[in-house]
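INFO batch 0412 | record 1 of 1 | parsing
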Amino acid sequence: MSWTKGKRRPLAALAVCVLLPLGAVACTGGEAHEGAVSSSPVGKVLDETDTTGRNLREVPRKNAPEVAVEVTEDPGGGWDVRLAFRHFGCSEPGARPVAVTGRGFVRLFVDGRRVARLHGPTHHLGAGAVPHGTHQITARLYADDGTVWAVRGKPVESSADITVSDAETGTAGTGTAADPDPTGTGSAADPDTAARGSAVPDPTGTGAAEVPGGTAPSAGGA
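INFO prediction complete | emitting tokens
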């Protein structure tokens, strides 16, 4: 089976992708809550929004949250998503909807369509979530108030391309560099009923359900 790497960004950003797994931080399990944009002094809330309509929360590049994503085919069916974090940890259960430096949750997108809300570094996508063809898997970092962590006006996110060649097999993608690279770097219900984890109501109030990802012991704070 051939392997397809995700889209590349400038060299400085690629180094982040290589180093992230060495200092990866696992998120804790649990549900973060969203509400109105908080008045937290962390960063600056911009007028610009992401594809889900959430405002960007600009923070300095130094010590900004970072993420890298890798997607591999599961021999048993579907796709396994693995995330690596730096300067970021998922929130503890019951966290208030207030932005806290380096904390929050992750949303997973397939071709720009939101499919899961993650509270851990791993997630399984069922085969039905990724049909035949080439697709982009994106992981984006959010603060607990629902704002999007951003650096220089760009969401903090990472993407990988995968190609499904037929109903059974496909090619997997390695993660791309996180968006904190200074050079340049909605909401339908999750159709993947085979995803691991139970569906939870969409806290954004859009009526879309999201599927929490796998859990892992906290290593980077919540």
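INFO post-check: The mean pLDDT is 72.
INFO record closed
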